[in-house]
Amino acid sequence: MSEDPVAVSQSQARRIWLRAQKLDTVAPFGSGPGAIPAAVRQLGYVQIDTIHVIERCHHHILFTRIPDYRREHLHQAQSADKTLFEYWTHALSFLPIEDFRFYVRDMRTYWSRRAVWFTNVKDNEVRRVMTRIRKGGALTIRDIEDDVLVEKDHAWASRKPSKRALQLAFFKGLVTVSQRAGMLKTYELTARHFGWQRLPAAASAGEVAEYLVDRALRAQGIVSLESICYLNPSGKPAIKRVIERRVRRKELIPVALAGAGKWQHWAQPEMLEQRLEDSPDLVHILSPFDPLVNQRKRSLLILDYEHRFEAYVPKAKRVFGYFACPVLCGDEIVAAIDLKTDRERRKLLIQKWTWVGRGSARAHKKRIESALGAFERFQLERLPA
User: Fold this and answer.
1) Are both 180 and 317 inside the same structural domain?
2) Based on the domain organization, do 307 and 176 belong to the same domain?
3) Which candidate among 131, 153, 216, 320 keeps its CA 20 to 30 Å from the CA of 43?
4) Does the pLDDT value for residue 35 go beyond 60?
5) CA–CA distance, 111 with 133 (Å, rounded to integer)
6) How many domains does the chain have?
7) Rounded to an integer, what distance in angstroms lies between the CA atom of residue 171 and that of residue 117?
8) Chain segment 209-246, per-residue pLDDT in tens
9) The pTM is what?
């Protein structure tokens, strides 16, 4: 990695990242059901989360980039068109189906690294739920009524032993989530759901490393080892070898990012050569799990903003609030607004509003209020009147 790095200012890095995240354009993926897989491919994955203070984060992340997003479009992509599948990245996520082969190695081995969770699951329990699905069709945990109930040993556990058997089968790739109703998952045999005779052949370890670099470059524009291997430090040696090889081939250029010090970054030459105008005056109410802010060290470096997710922080120690959402105006995070949806009164409640931008941040207030109105309508559109 002896190439002299190209100096990149913070403002240039912001524009590159916002372009990669498709937050600098109105409706970058078009509209309708076809926008869903296009958005997931660009971002690499869309995180799924159970918290329901406002809309769940997978719907929120997609709505941010698809203004006419409808939840049924995600259902269509997952269950009818089958262009998406669920699996574990740094968290449970929706992924493009064409990427499935890059996760087959994890399905063969990764589940064993979660052995603490699956310690008490017996092979015959997995075989039993598999046989049940094979003979009776797709099912949810609610469909299993003959379990001998046990005491919970974890807050997220179930009294039904079959739940962990289903989860283990999922991590092994034997079953897939064929549809969701809220957070209630329907499990189906993976090969049967996708119409395969067998699972795709696993990508090699080298192919997986190349894929992770490509995915990060597409979604981030400028990358580092830390941003590519987010919450996966054991993957860094393989990723570093890919980067070194691409630098030698001139496919990647070392980047000296303002303020990064010895923290190394890289980009594709065409990414640095593209003409980037000033970010348009768009306003986005971001999910706290949005990929623009979920890597705190990166967002602090490039956006001058380090998000605090405080749902698990004692109330007295919260700064932004229980479920604060960052507000992006143009290329700047200017506020963090703690939101809650009151579904009975059909209102989006502002619990706390914290300005975090530079001196002119308050000038954005009217536009933020307009964006909050659109977000409120999205929140409430499917609730009964």
Assistant:
1) no
2) no
3) 320
4) yes
5) 21
6) 2
7) 12
8) 999 999 999 999 999 999 999 999 999 999 999 999 99
9) 0.94
- The answer on pLDDT for 373 being more than 70 is yes
In a domain, 103, yes or no: yes
Nearest 5°: the CA angle 41, 114, 306 is 55
Q: Which residues pair with 8 in a beta bridge?
A: 257
Q: Give a yes or no: residue 230 inside a domain.
A: no
> Residue 73 in contact with residue 32, Cβ under 8 Å?
yes
Decide which of 152, 175, 203 is a domain's last residue. Answer: 203
Domain edge (last residue) among 203, 223, 254: 203
Q: Please name the residue that has the structure tokens 């119409």.
A: 195
Cα angle 224, 228, 230 (rounded to 5 degrees) comes to 110
Structure tokens at 82: 């089958």
What's the rounded Cα separation, in Å, for the pair 362 and 329?
11
Q: With contact defined as beta carbons under 8 Å apart, do 175 and 130 qualify?
A: yes
**369: its two tokens:** 């209020």
**For residues 117 and 196, what is the distance between their CA atoms, to the nearest angstrom?**
29
SS3 state of residue 6: strand
Cβ–Cβ under 8 Å, residues 47 and 91? yes
Whether 151 is covered by a domain: the verdict is yes
Q: Kindly report the backbone phi and psi dihedral angles of residue 382, in degrees, each rounded to the nearest multiple of 5, phi listed first.
A: -105, 5
Residues 52-66 have a mean pLDDT of 96
DSSP 251-273: SSEEEEETT-TT--EEE-HHHHH
pLDDT in tens, 312-335: 999 999 999 999 999 999 999 999
**In one letter, which amino acid is 28?**
P
322 lies in some domain: yes
Q: What is the pLDDT of residues 108-149, one digit of tens each?
A: 986 666 555 677 788 899 999 999 999 999 999 999 987 776
From residue 123, alpha-carbon distances to 117, 118, 169, 186 in Å are: 14, 11, 10, 21
